[in-house]
Design goal:
Elements: E1 4-5, E2 10-11, E3 55-61, E4 71-76, E5 81-85, E6 90-95, E7 102-107, E8 119-126, E9 134-141, E10 146-152, E11 155-162, E12 167-172, E13 197-203, E14 211-217, E15 220-227, E16 245-251, E17 259-271, E18 279-284, E19 291-292, E20 301-308, E21 319-328, E22 334-346, E23 351-352, E24 359-363, E25 367-369, E26 372-380, E27 386-390, E28 403-404, E29 409-410, E30 412-419, E31 425-434
Antiparallel strand pairs: 1-2, 3-17, 4-7, 5-6, 6-17, 7-16, 8-13, 8-17, 9-10, 9-16, 10-11, 11-12, 13-14, 14-15, 18-31, 19-31, 20-24, 20-30, 21-27, 21-31, 22-25, 22-26, 22-30, 23-24, 28-29
């Protein structure tokens, strides 16, 4: 039987004679079995299933022509900046040399983990040259919970942050339990933390599952470390697996030079699709009190607005607009409608959609400014016609309510209407689904 020396990575027989062997072993000398899988390029997902199903992308981010408005920034200290690099198609996140300088970049949305499905997260970046008193973080995390890769000084870590347990588990590279990526592991790869990297992780939450983390190198998903929890802990390992993406760079003390991390692309993928199974809710104008569209004609006025509650704090809830309905009064007026994200309305009163809801709403918000248009259309009041719009399933997460998690600010999603007739009236309703129950 052939004998393999895992230290020299060679057969003991120098003649390289071929042998028949009853077992298969990886290059680390361990027999392939259920716990030590054969290192093939097609990885199983977090639940051990071969990745053959179509993934559903919940979110993707790239920067081709500008900073893409999918992230918010919290900039602290002299020399701290966020800037789009036109020729590189990325965002530079820079800080000066003063202690306490920092920049945090976080998505305006959190992403929906569905129990029983693997959640695959990818982030690409180029770290600043590691140095004393410089800390860099990239991953799927917020202020209280999540998983991320950290370079603190010159030492790489994988970190699990948990509000549930009240702890932050930091595992240095020398203690990674699958592949230390120092050239001695099963991959034979040495991680260069001064170079561009593709960070991946897949999450088997269910409150108690495993998180696997590593890097995509030479087209291979290299598994470096696993955080195991089932049969080990007495509670959930993090409060929720529905979290934002986040990049951080900060000086923990004075540094010898300024530092810049490059933020490139990100993606969050539900492996095996996604089925909406949330709480369906709706709000509408009273049947006896349509919204009046005042002078001048042709101006868009808010009819119904919804947003996440900031008190009690529901800013990490996942809420998706699923349908809208409109009807004009009388015969003759023509109408144009839009759904605007992140606009600001003035006037009206915010009302809770219910004690069990993460949403508050207001009807007839006075005037509106700013925002971006997510959808638009026309309808007529002739013969009391109405417009009913179902949001396409493929676009559902495009209509998710957003927030600035760094400042605790919810963003409005508003249905606005204009008419060619001053004083025209309109009835409307909005339906939404609350996934995070």
């Amino acid at each position: 039987m052939a004998q393999w020396n895992k230290n020299t990575q060679d057969f003991l027989n120098q003649e390289r004679t071929l042998f028949e062997v009853p077992l298969i072993a990886t290059r680390d000398g361990n027999v392939v079995d259920n716990l030590n899988r054969f290192p093939v390029s097609v990885n199983p997902d977090a639940f051990g299933r071969t990745r053959i199903s179509q993934p559903l992308t919940l979110f993707d981010s790239s920067h081709r022509y500008r900073d893409n408005n999918l992230w918010e920034s919290l900039i602290v200290g002299t020399g701290s900046t966020v800037g789009f690099a036109t020729t590189q198609g990325l965002v530079n996140i820079g800080i000066g040399t003063t202690a306490g300088c920092s920049v945090i970049r976080e998505t305006t949305k959190t992403f929906s983990y569905q129990p029983g499905k693997s959640l695959l997260v990818l982030n690409t970046f180029v770290p600043s040259t590691p140095k004393e008193n410089l800390r860099q973080r990239i991953g799927y995390f917020g202020a209280d919970n999540g998983m991320y890769f950290e370079i603190n000084g010159t030492t790489p870590y994988f970190v699990e942050r948990s509000l549930s347990t009240g702890t932050q588990t930091e595992v240095a590279q020398d203690d990674w339990n699958i592949d230390k990526l120092d050239g001695t592991g099963v991959s034979g790869i040495t991680l260069d933390i001064s170079k561009a990297q593709i960070l991946w992780m897949d999450i088997e939450w269910l409150g108690l599952g495993t998180v696997r983390m590593g890097f995509v190198i030479d087209g291979r998903f290299v598994h470096a470390h696993s955080f195991h929890h089932a049969n080990r802990i007495q509670s959930t390992y993090i409060t929720t697996a529905s979290l934002p993406l986040r990049y951080e760079i900060a000086n923990t003390g004075i540094t010898t030079s300024s530092s810049t991390m490059k933020q490139v692309c990100s993606s969050v993928i539900s492996e095996g699709g996604y089925e909406l199974r949330g709480l369906q809710q709706a709000v509408n104008t009273p049947i006896t009190a349509p919204v009046d569209l005042p002078t001048p004609a042709g101006t868009y006025y808010p009819v119904i607005s919804i947003r996440l509650k900031s008190s009690p704090n529901r800013l990490d809830a996942i809420v998706i607009l699923t349908a809208l309905s409109l009807m004009g009064t009388g015969n003759g007026p023509e109408y144009s409608w839009q759904v605007r994200a992140s606009a600001t309305t003035s006037g009206g009163t915010w009302v809770s959609a219910g004690a069990d809801s993460a949403v508050e709403y207001k009807i007839d918000g006075g005037t509106i400014s700013g925002g971006r248009i997510l959808a638009s259309g026309f309808f007529s009041s002739a013969n009391q016609s109405s417009a009913s719009v179902d949001i396409l399933k493929e676009a559902l997460f495009k209509f998710q309510l957003e927030r600035n998690g760094l400042t605790g600010t919810p963003y409005e999603l508003t249905l606005v209407v204009a008419s060619d007739t001053a004083g025209a009236d309109v009835f409307a309703s909005l339906d939404w689904e609350e996934i995070s129950r």
